[in-house]
Design a protein that fits this description.
The complex is a heterodimer of chains A (about 200) and B (about 300). In chain A, about 20% of the residues lie in helices and about 20% in strands. Chain A contains seven helices and nine strands, in the order βαββαββαβαβααβαβ. Chain A is globular, with a radius of gyration of 17 Å. In chain B, helix 2 packs antiparallel against helix 3, helix 2 crosses helix 7 and helix 7 runs antiparallel to helix 8. The chains are: A alpha+beta (about 200), B mainly alpha (about 300).
Chain lengths: ~200, ~300
């Protein structure tokens, strides 16, 4: 079993729904985005178009962040291939952030609240799970996945641009889409073997 | 948002950029990492030349600087109270290897040095314990000289640091830093002999020449064969936000001024001048490391490049 994700760039409308769903699910502090949507314009007026590129941790087959971590805090679950962080082991050296070619790791040294009046009840409830001064990142919503639900970004995508499934299963939706639609990964030249694929726009 | 809003706004601004600069190593508390790497490199070099010239103050300086370097590393960590956990992943992580090297070095030096300094010490300088200390410190010194460049080369997110020359460059920095430290010490405390001082100056000149060549080759390699992020880093260094540090700190203070001093162009070559050469050289090395680290930008994530890649 190897969990993976396919993001159909033709369906993505850049609505930031995934980014907000992730924020709501994990209650990440200000400045921390496990899922992001990058926008890019190409062409010249009047033939201009905006492209949206949703990014998240690629849960690589050969994750450089795991190799670089001196404590073993960054690790890969053997049973499902998800790359995760044991926050009790992290010393906050941020070597994993330098090793990640996809810049999807964050150092949690910000105050956990958005407003100067202090934390809201929601922020208090959500931030309790986030240890300060350690590195954070997406874990494919592993708790949700283990209870049979899709990751929050997948569940909340209004255009069904995101598909989640088992990359090791040749008849799964993700495997079929990658094969039929020519799925590609970001920065294949780095050789990390990402588990997040994109379908061409 | 309160006082942290400036940092938050900058982060959001960084996330919008094609070329996101790395700020974790070298900015804010991240400066402690640069200081730590600088001090530990100088310490290892000073120990090496201290052994080579049988110069006890060099060994003592190496020990003290390595201790300070360790403290700087701790000050950088987000959770310094867990520092000992860094020894857990030596199989793949260069930081773990560096941690082991620093520990070996400090423990070894703590065993080897006291009988050389204090007459009434429980073990003598030629005892087995002192010999074990010498061997541990020697092994630690080699690791410290070697590991730092590999820490950066293993950072796949920052292509500018990925040059195969980077580890060699950091090794030469350590040698140049060690020679500089001993120049200052010999100028202040008096050299053990004029031939030793002359040899040290020759070493400093030789290593400096190697550093210049390697650094030029690294920049040339990034410009000619590097990807867009590596080229952007060189641009930041030569004509961007780090140009002042590079030209003022690295080139002027670190290379041109000491080179002019050593050549005797600015003043007659005496002990005071050599001390100044050592200080400028060390300061220049710090700026060189600082500028190189701060110039790092992440691989851009854009569809245009995804397609062309």
């Amino acid at each position: 079993m190897k969990w993976g994700m396919v993001i159909d760039l033709k369906r993505c409308i850049g609505c930031y729904g995934c980014q907000l769903a992730c924020k709501a699910e994990h209650g990440t502090p200000p400045g921390v985005f496990f899922a992001r949507v990058l926008k890019h314009e190409e062409g010249k007026y009047p033939t201009v178009r905006q492209l949206a590129l949703p990014v998240l941790c690629n849960h690589c087959e050969d994750p450089p962040c795991v190799e670089a971590c001196p404590t073993g805090a960054s690790f890969k679950w053997e049973d499902d291939g998800i790359v995760d962080i044991d926050h009790d082991l992290c010393v906050g050296c941020r070597s994993c952030m330098m090793a990640c070619p996809y810049t999807n790791r964050y150092f949690n040294d910000q105050p956990p609240q958005y407003y100067s009046q202090g934390m809201t009840a929601y922020e208090q409830a959500r931030s309790a799970r986030h240890e300060p001064n350690v590195v954070m990142k997406c874990n494919f919503c592993r708790d949700r996945v283990r209870s049979g639900k899709p990751p929050a970004c997948v569940a909340n995508c209004p255009t069904i641009a995101r598909v989640f499934g088992d990359l090791d299963d040749p008849v799964s939706d993700v495997s079929r889409l990658i094969k039929e639609r020519g799925g590609f990964t970001l920065h294949p030249e780095v050789g990390t073997g990402p588990s997040v694929y994109y379908l061409p726009p | 948002m309160n006082g942290m809003s400036a940092k938050y706004e900058r982060l959001i601004d960084d996330l919008r950029q094609d070329f996101r600069p790395q700020r974790e190593w070298g900015e804010g508390r991240g400066v402690f990492l640069v200081v730590g790497h600088f001090l530990v490199g100088v310490a290892a070099g000073a120990w090496l030349f201290g052994l080579l010239f049988a110069y006890l103050p060099g060994l003592l300086a190496g020990f003290v600087l390595a201790g300070l370097g360790g403290v700087a590393h701790l000050a950088f960590l987000g959770r310094p109270e867990r520092f000992w956990k860094m020894a857990r992943h030596m199989r793949t992580a260069w930081i773990s290897r560096g941690f082991a090297g620093l520990t070996l070095f400090l423990v070894g030096a703590a065993l080897y040095l006291p009988p050389l300094v204090l007459a009434a010490w429980p073990w003598s300088a030629d005892s087995t314990l002192a010999w074990i200390g010498w061997a541990m410190a020697g092994a630690g010194m080699v690791i410290l000289i070697v590991y730092m460049g590999f820490v950066y080369t293993a950072s796949k997110g920052i292509p500018f640091w990925g040059s195969p020359l980077h580890p060699v460059l950091y090794m030469t920095y350590a040698l140049r830093g060690g020679a500089a430290a001993l120049l200052v010490e010999m100028a202040v405390l008096g050299p053990p002999g004029n031939d030793v001082l002359a040899a040290l100056v020759k070493i400093w000149i030789g290593v400096t020449a190697v550093v210049i060549v390697l650094f030029a080759l690294e920049l040339q390699g990034a410009l000619a064969g590097g990807n867009v992020a590596a080229r952007r880093s060189v641009r930041e260094l030569l004509a961007g936000r780090l140009a002042l540090v590079f030209y003022g700190g690295t080139l002027l203070i670190g290379i041109l001024v000491p080179a002019a001093l050593v050549s005797g162009q600015l003043a007659p070559l005496g002990l005071g001048v050599l001390a100044l050469v050592g200080l400028c050289s060390a300061l220049g090395d710090f700026f060189m490391k600082y500028a190189t680290i701060r110039a790092g930008v992440y691989l851009p994530l854009t569809l245009r490049r995804v397609r062309s890649g």
